[in-house]
Amino acid sequence: MQTERTAYPALRGRRILLGITGSIAAYKAAALCRLLKTAGAEVRVVMTPLAKQFITPLTMATLSKNPILVEFFDPENGAWHSHVSLGEWADCFLIAPATANTLAKMCAGIADNLLLTTYLSARCPVVVAPAMDLDMYAHAATQENLQALARRGVAIVEPAEGELASGLVGKGRMAEPEEIAAFLHTLFSQAPGNDAPERNPSEGSLGNSGSAPHASSAGPLLGKRFVVTAGATVEAIDPVRFISNRSTGKMGYAIAGELARRGAAVVLVSGPTALPTPAGVERRDVVSADEMFDAAVDAFAEADGAVMCAAVADYTPAEVSDVKIKKDNGELTLTLRRTRDIAAHLGARKGSRLLVGFALETDHEQSNAEAKLARKNFDFIVLNSLRDAGAGFGVDTNKVTFIDRGGRQELPLMAKTEVAAHIAQKIESLLK
Ligand code: C5P
């Protein structure tokens, strides 16, 4: 069995400042703290005053093995808790759960508690895991605040859909501790030159580690332009019938949304789907593989990179009947012709631009994916296997492996939105 320590090796020796705000999801911060500690990270906890109503400082102090910081100074002895030192100490400031209120204050630069002053002075990467009711999360104010924070380089671990404390069902549940730990693991393992710093044990106290190396920021994609293809294509047989596949577009839409949240200008070339267009994304609707080819090639001319997530038909009817084909008693043979491979076309012309592909395999996953990586000239390929439970069409989760010319990185089962964040993170690090 895999232990927690081996699941997130990049967390070993990291200094993680865990910020907890006043949400019912604060109870998950206890499990998260334990997970980070088990992975070998040092954890300090800063709480907003309201967070204490949801989880006790005693619980968090016991789990983190450090005193909890809430006030600017200790009322007992007047000792000053320096937000600057906290920010300098940390390799990463993780705010989980992050309420709509705290996100809004972060966005506006309000500094009325220790957590917020620490955020404003932190120079390390900042990661937030929002948690709130579905309507608060969907509200334009919250979405715009999240987009603004993402543009400034704050990494967002998207909330999941599910039952909320209010009893309503929707998007707003804080990501599970395992997903957040996996997110941090990716953040640390993908930042260049970013092995865990060797530290002298005496360096452990706050305020004396100003020269400790910081992980490089998650980095906004502001100024970058991306094309994302998503969904299935639909190939007409006649005015009524068509050939298509089971792709719903969820993965591609999540990627487009994630890249936009990080500041990129995104053109989403989409097959027919009922999904809403992600915030800040320009969507170009297509139906057939030929239409997707034209739209993707056109958009790629202006782009810095593309993520080819669509399930493009490999074959399309050689002829489309203008009228509904009538049945008779005999067999019907359809002649299909090959469609053009969009990814291979872009790969042959990409130059220094970034190209990310997907591979959905049912057998010989690794070798098939490697062959595709080479044939289509991808920078990396996201492999998912239909053999993995929870991965594939229609579901909200996926289990993927990144494969590039340097090797492979297997990720645990997680929400598609989380997979999208990992992909965006890898894209950011490759662009640096
Ligand atoms: O060869 P295969 O279809 O398995 O390759 C999958 C990858 O190639 C995906 O990234 C997919 O979006 C892309 N592709 C494409 N155009 C095609 C077929 C696949 O862009 N006609």
Give the helix/strand layout:
Elements: H1 4-7, E1 15-20, H2 26-38, E2 42-47, H3 57-64, H4 83-89, E3 92-98, H5 100-108, H6 114-121, E4 126-130, H7 134-138, H8 140-151, E5 155-156, E6 160-163, E7 169-173, H9 177-190, E8 225-230, E9 235-236, E10 242-243, H10 250-261, E11 265-270, E12 281-285, H11 289-300, E13 305-308, E14 315-317, E15 336-338, H12 342-348, E16 354-361, H13 365-375, E17 380-385, E18 397-398, E19 400-404, E20 407-410, E21 414-415, H14 416-431
Parallel strand pairs: 1-2, 1-3, 3-4, 4-5, 8-11, 8-13, 11-12, 13-16, 16-17
Antiparallel strand pairs: 6-7, 9-10, 14-15, 17-19, 18-21, 19-20
Helix pairs in contact: 2-3, 2-9, 4-6, 5-8, 9-14, 10-14
The structure holds cytidine-5'-monophosphate (C5P).
Structural class: alpha/beta
User: Helicity range of the residues?
Assistant: 25-40%
Task: Count the E strands.
Answer: 21
For the biggest β-sheet, the strand order reads: 12-11-8-13-16-17-19-20
Mean pLDDT: 87
Biggest sheet record: 8 strands, mixed
First-residue to last-residue Cα separation? 36 Å
Question: What small molecules accompany the polymer chains?
Answer: cytidine-5'-monophosphate
> Quick one: overall form?
elongated
Taking pLDDT < 50 over at least 5 consecutive residues as the criterion, the unreliable ranges are 1-6, 201-219
What fraction of the residues are assigned to beta strands by DSSP? Answer: 15-25%
Radius of gyration: 24 Å
* Number of continuous helical runs: 14
Walk me through this protein's architecture:
The chain has 432 residues and is α/β, with parallel strands linked by helices. Strand 1, helix 2 and strand 2 (42-47) form a beta-alpha-beta unit. The protein has helices at residues 4-7, 26-38, 57-64, 83-89, 100-108, 114-121, 134-138, 140-151, 177-190, 250-261, 289-300, 342-348, 365-375, 416-431; strands at 15-20, 42-47, 92-98, 126-130, 155-156, 160-163, 169-173, 225-230, 235-236, 242-243, 265-270, 281-285, 305-308, 315-317, 336-338, 354-361, 380-385, 397-398, 400-404, 407-410, 414-415. The two termini are 36 Å apart. 46% of the residues are buried. Cytidine-5'-monophosphate (C5P) is lined by residues 229, 289, 308-310, 312, 339, 341-343, 357-359, 372, 376.
